Amino acid sequence: MSGMTMSQKILAAHAGLDHVEAGQLIEADLDLVLGNDITSPVAINEMAKFTKSGVFDKDKIALVPDHFVPNKDIKSAENCKCVREFAIKNNITNYFEVGQMGIEHALLPEQGLTLPGNLIIGADSHTCTYGAVGAFSTGIGSTDMAAGMATGKAWFKVPSAIKFNIVGKPSKWVSGKDVILHIIGMIGVDGALYKSMEFVGEGIKNLTMDDRLTIANMAIEAGGKNGIFPVDDITIEYLKEHAPGKEYKVFEADTDAQYDEEYTIDLSTLKSTVAYPHLPENTKTFDEIEDIKIDQVVIGSCTNGRIGDLRAAAEVLKGRKVAPGVRCIVIPGTQNIYLQAMEEGLLRTFIEAGAIVSTPTCGPCLGGHMGVLASKERCVSTTNRNFVGRMGAIDSEIYLASPAVAAASAATGKLSQPSELGL
Amino acid sequence: MKAAKGTVFKYGDNVDTDVIIPARYLAITDAKELSKHCMEDIDKDFVNKVKEGDVIVADRNFGCGSSREHAPLVIKTSGVSCVIAKSFARIFYRNSINIGLPIIECEEAAENINAGDVVSIDFDTGVITDETTGKSFQGQAFPPFMQKIIDSEGLINYINSKN
After folding, report:
1. B81 to chain A nearest CA, in Å?
2. Minimum mean pLDDT among A224-233, A298-307, B20-29, B44-53: which range?
3. What's this model's pTM, rounded to 2 decimal places?
């Protein structure tokens, strides 16, 4: 009997089993079920088909209207109303109305709702973000969400894993976004299909929680079922601040755990990395990049809307102006991040540079609102997908990058890294 | 025995959920209305040509991207009886089973079947037959647990039937 990975141990514990093997089908108890304004109405509709009524635990469901919020049109308003009424009717503890809400994957860790060792499903593909705090969390669809809300359980095929041994220390402008884009460029958009991506090694001490949340967030862009980090001093400090007094269990991989593949990622060798249209695996570094003139920059999203991201962008834009002809849209991930950015003077920096600052929303990332692209327009974006038509017109182009690269690009009007500004 | 038969629409690698059903339509909740935009950003003619029973055949990582269940739902509502691919993105795979859209992995079938061929699929055995060329391929049959969900026409019915 081989040892288990971190992910397998969490699944086994929630299935009441001592041991699980990759490929095994299990039913497991859930610690949290998440939905947003796009996926929850479908799930709520499905809930009505259950012979048993009500939710399994009003404290273990999180409903976060964030995609087309504040309501972008009448249909979005109806969807949000549906979620709101369901939350009120079922007395859902963790319903976040406009004014309290944030982008779900920025909000839930901040609110201390995602803990090490938790088993979390969310009807949003970027639910894998919470692996940053040592949880097993994965995206599912609305029917799974409905079944999860009704029964508190979900079925899983136990994943095998790829191990990423992180070593070294990144240079000044290299962030979590560059790490994960580098990895996706290396293994491809289906390189981790059905698998766990486990990020370990002495180098993780050089990655902030914001970096880790960004890396785990984009595990899905390599096809991964989940991305996960071990719990260390940085995680514990984060939890002291965001989940004071809450109990959790830490799971470590067995020393004889089996991995399908192992890679070593030396952070000291990484450079600012950009994913060209129309797949996150189309990565380039600036030695391969020619002049790409741009129309828009988006800094935000569940991938890069956290305070560390805004600090990096503001450091680049401080005392500079957004280039003529470029729209720069900054979207803090949550109300708390918004407030913190205000108190630190970051919002002033953005506004003085000629950027706009929006209330938290997924908005432009999926071509919803707050920055949809016209035909042939190009956007440098800190979001997670650059698929055809993702942010608007089907012949628009998205270049995925870190907040520092996005901010530098806003200042020059072309795809740029901070060193081009003498930084 | 469950089976499907229909004419093939063929696509390449990494057909993502944003092209299956673009996010600009996601505020629509009616499946029939949504399905008018199925495959819109990759194949504008799809909705005009698709008939009840037709089959989609694609290469690697079909359904990658978002968790939107709207993606398998619009394919099913369009009348498609089965999707065959070299591999599926995992959330799409799961969602398809949960809503009762049959999908089957078969690298050889994806390589050899042409657009416009008539294909039949036997879900019990996983055998895919290209009736136009006469070739047949062994796809991966579902584990019994997943077959039960599909036979119940989705996860909710399956859970109801267990209680």
Report:
1. 20
2. B20-29
3. 0.97
Domain endpoint, select from A266, A282, A302: A266
Range of the domain at A101: 6-266
Report the helix count and the strand count for chain A, using DSSP H and E: 13, 18
Domain check: are A73 and A188 in the same one? yes
The two three-digit tokens of residue A220, written as one number: 């899905």
Chain A residues whose beta carbon lies within 8 Å of the beta carbon of residue B61: 189-190, 193, 223
Domain boundary among A266, A283, A298: A266
What ipTM is given for this predicted complex? 0.94
Supply the DSSP string of A251-311, one letter for each residue: ----TTB--SEEEEEEGGG---EEEPTT-TT-EEEGGG----B-SEEEE-HHHH-SHHHHH
The model's pLDDT over A76-93, given as tens digits with 9 standing for 90+, comes to 999 999 999 999 999 999
Span B54-67, mean pLDDT? 97
pLDDT at B1 over 60: no
Residues in chain B: 163
Chain B residue with minimal CA distance to A139? B67
Cα-flanking dihedrals φ and ψ of residue A110, to 5°?
Answer: -60, -35
pLDDT computed for residue B153 by the predictor: 85
Q: Quick one: how far is CA A198 from the chain centroid? A: 16
| C-alpha–C-alpha distance, residues B134 and B156, integer Å | 38
Asked if the Cβ–Cβ distance from A193 to B29 is below 8 Å, we say no
Phi-psi region of A84 (alpha: psi -120 to 50; beta: other; left: phi over 0): alpha
Kind and range of the H or E run holding A138: strand A136-139
Candidates A190, A226, A302, partner chain B, best to mutate (most B CBs within 10 A): A190
Lowest pLDDT segment from A26-30, A50-54, A118-122, A248-252:
A50-54
Please tell me whether residues A157 and A237 are part of one structural domain: yes
